[in-house]
Design goal:
Chains A, B: It holds the Pfam family Peptidase_M32. The structure is a homodimer of 509-residue chains. With 509 residues, chain A is mainly α. Chain A is built from 21 helices and 3 strands. At the A-B interface, helix 1 and helix 2 of A face helix 1 and helix 2 of B.
Chain lengths: 509, 509
């Protein structure tokens, strides 16, 4: 029996109704998370746990609803009259449905139980700086993750299946290509910079900066960049993050340290980048999968575009300098130039042990190292017990420094303690996407750097809204989006070229 | 076949699991509501609406889950081995189940639609001060409410069925008894006081009070009364209210006006009373119906006990006076005595048109008036079109003043626009419960008034925790709780005696 366009439309509408309902519940889950980090009184932890579990149960039931599966099956066979956005919705909703229904309850429960145990073990192990205390928990994560991946798609390498959760459409074969190129480009550059360490003066920036004034400055900067308080909030939390419940309700947080002005400032710009991506989503497809962020890497590209390509540039230093002078006249009111500020912001440190403290040059090598290790864990070529040794060897080779202990080495990141394999690469993919996107925007927007120097960010924001934010998840991968926006898939050479030229100038290499 | 204790226990455990899950979801609903009033950015109203609807749908499905009905049926037949708390859970869960399942979907949808229309019509009518614009909407509420009541229990008067939603176990027959007594006691007293209006000086309290200082003072008072910030928050919102997600997460709000110090202060104490009831719940029965508040009237008794019986008393004025002097030395630093403060706090105004602005003497008559009218609407003895006339006649008779227009008369309250019939009486029941409970606590706690004067509230709080808060919904009605706590069902004469003696002294009647 032929299916009429009308039938397809009705089935699709039913699907959308279910997907929007699910999206609303996920928005509520976002509120619970934000509230827990920013507002919840400490004594409510247990009841909040029960609330999150109750909501997760409801969401799970809706995600695995057999009626949803039937609607998707029908629509995958016949999409007469539907446009590409609708097709993308069906495609992504089906993918989520397959993932949600693939994992047996028993495995899901074992994973949930291991989350708490493993996190605790990691906290203890890091405190004692003793990897062996965490090793058995990590081994169990490796086993559970392989088991899970096999249920989702046993025809693909386990690592690729996991990777897809964070970076849609990405594979380890493609990452190998990318990261070998990055490694070969960066390792000699880092060595060259290390020989010039100390040639840029940034000691003058050190000092004590009132946190209230930092917060005021950062709010002003976030609003200048385009963060919209009608559709969002700005609060303070222990760790900066961007959450919220919906593109019309995006909540970013910042935090400030008295003795580190630039850290709070770059974190605020970083979160603003995430927040602008969220606020910029296309409300014509509100509540549908096609309107969600494409991937973690693309999300990170938006934070890093504003943080590194914009806020760490010389034009931005020209915009920032008078603002700093107004808030902290004793430090910035005198003869400090935008050039001096720019240089101080971009200092590379001699020792780069900790990923989250790394600059834009060394950061990628922290990721390459982690990628090589976690990929090896998944395909069996790396054993858990060898991790500390391999970690330190790679640190020496890639970053010319060896961690003095496990806490500052293999135990520094929380990710593996939560079973997040395939997550790390997205940080560096984000940095590379950011460079490529930014360079394209510079071609598209005449006088962009002059605009930045004058504090006019609206053209860049509008361009990102149009080309990245509103496009949501229409494409199937970061590469596809890059192709659509910049004319080429991700090209690490663009990133390497940017880094080389910037730091050759800064360090007179 | 005989049912073993073990079977009963297992069935009961299953019931509790479902009820706790439901309670967690209701807690989430509390968070959505609080957030909307206190935190949500304005542009998020539409998405929040969708989130609330999605969650309401989930809650409805769980409330009407046939498995829940089966568990309840089984347990209502056999409760071998269960204690009185378990029985109360079964009793109240069954009552909620019957109510949730009684109303046909079609009627529920008509009610939901009318909520928005009617509220808008009321806003417009009040703005135009024209009752006729609201009359058809009110008539529809009367019809819908009768229809709804008949579905829940067609053997009882519609008004009694509605009343039970707010004041469990209360009937209109009992309210008639109570309110006739209140009316006969208060009307002559009010007339007597009116002849002495102006004999208490409170002009000196008027002035401008910095709101930040008011907030600081009120926070101190709330903490002194026993509000626990480990299990709650204190914020500012347009209308003060107490919400939250759980007894370990109680969120109260206050608001302050520069030109009205006492208003913000009494509102803060009022909300603290609600909050202490919430924080005081018995966590042994966490998430179960027996652990919820007994009724709106009992909830209000806790806010009014602290607001009126404690904070408007002379001993409290002794505690408060030095605090006021510390925060507002220009006004309270001089020769003002606690007695003068006490008198100023308890002034009765000549004209009492607006319920929410009424003092503790006239307040009850505003309620008697509304009760008589809404009861008449339900039994057909009062016609919607006659409301403005009847309202004004009763105002003159009970409160010696006539509203100049509908906006300040019959249109002043939002309740009827939302179809809330049977809600008003709980305010006055709360005041009467409060008096009776407070007088009992005074007998039970030697030196209570001296403690209050010294700012020591912990014994009173502990007594209320033990006798009211922890008891939750164990009893079937406010009367039953009153009997258990004070030895007698609600006795309006206790309230009248308190009012008479206090105001006879204040106004030298």
């Amino acid at each position: 029996m032929a299916v009429s366009e009308q039938n397809v439309k009705e089935t699709y509408d039913k699907l959308c109704e279910k997907l929007k309902d699910l999206s609303s519940l996920q928005g509520i889950s976002g509120l619970l998370g934000w509230d827990e980090m920013v507002m919840m009184p400490s004594g409510a932890a247990a009841s909040r746990g029960a609330q999150k579990a109750a909501l997760a149960g409801v969401v799970y039931d809706k995600e695995t609803d057999p009626e949803l599966g039937q609607l998707l099956d029908t629509l995958r066979k016949e999409q007469k009259g539907l446009d590409e956005w609708a097709s993308a919705n069906i495609r992504d909703a089906h993918k989520s449905y397959v993932k949600a229904t693939a994992i047996p309850k028993d495995l899901a429960q074992r994973i949930a139980r291991h989350e708490t145990d493993s996190y605790q073990a990691w906290v203890e192990a890091r405190k004692a700086s003793d990897f062996s205390k965490f090793a058995p928990y990590l081994q169990k994560w490796v086993d559970l993750s392989k088991e899970k991946a096999a249920f989702i798609d046993s025809t693909k390498p386990a690592y690729d299946v996991l990777l897809d959760n964070y970076e849609k459409g990405m594979t380890s074969a493609r990452l190998d290509e990318i990261f070998v190129q990055v490694r070969e480009g960066l390792v000699p550059l880092i060595a060259a910079i290390k020989s010039k360490i100390g040639t840029i003066d940034d000691a003058w920036v050190k000092g004590t900066y009132e946190t209230e004034k930092q917060a005021e400055l950062c709010k002003q900067v976030a609003l200048d960049l385009g963060f919209n308080l009608e559709n969002g909030r700005l609060d303070v939390s222990v760790h900066p993050f961007t959450g919220g419940t919906h593109p019309t309700d995006v909540r970013m947080t910042t935090r400030f340290k008295q003795d580190d002005l630039l850290d709070g400032l770059t974190a605020a710009v970083h979160e603003t980048g995430h927040a602008l991506y969220e606020q910029g989503r296309n409300l014509n497809y509100d509540g549908l999968p096609v309107n969600s962020s494409l991937s973690m890497g693309i999300h990170e590209s938006q934070s890093l575009l504003w943080e590194r390509m914009v806020a760490l540039s010389l034009p931005f230093a020209k915009y920032l300098k008078p603002k700093l002078a107004a808030h902290f006249p004793e430090k910035f009111g005198g003869e400090v130039t935008a050039e001096e500020l720019y240089k101080a912001e971009n200092v590379v440190r001699d020792v780069s042990l900790i990923r989250v403290e790394a600059d834009e040059v060394t950061y990628a090598m922290h990721i390459v190292l982690r990628y090589e290790l976690e990929r090896g864990l998944m395909d069996g070529s790396v054993k858990v017990e060898d991790l500390p040794r391999l970690w330190n060897e790679k640190m020496e080779k890639y970053l010319c420094c060896v961690p003095p202990n496990d806490a500052q080495g293999v135990l520094q990141d929380v990710h593996w303690s939560m079973g997040l394999f395939g997550y790390f690469p997205t940080y560096s993919l984000g940095a590379m996407y950011a460079t490529q996107i930014y360079l394209r925007s510079k071609d598209a927007i005449p006088g962009l750097e002059e605009q930045i120097a004058e504090g006019e960010f609206k053209h860049l924001k509008a361009w990102l809204n149009e080309n990245i934010h509103k496009v949501g998840s229409l494409h199937t991968s970061g590469d596809e989006l890059m192709k659509a926006v910049t004319g080429s898939v991700l090209d690490p050479e663009v990133f390497l070229g940017y880094i080389r030229s910037k730091y050759t100038a800064l360090y007179s290499l």
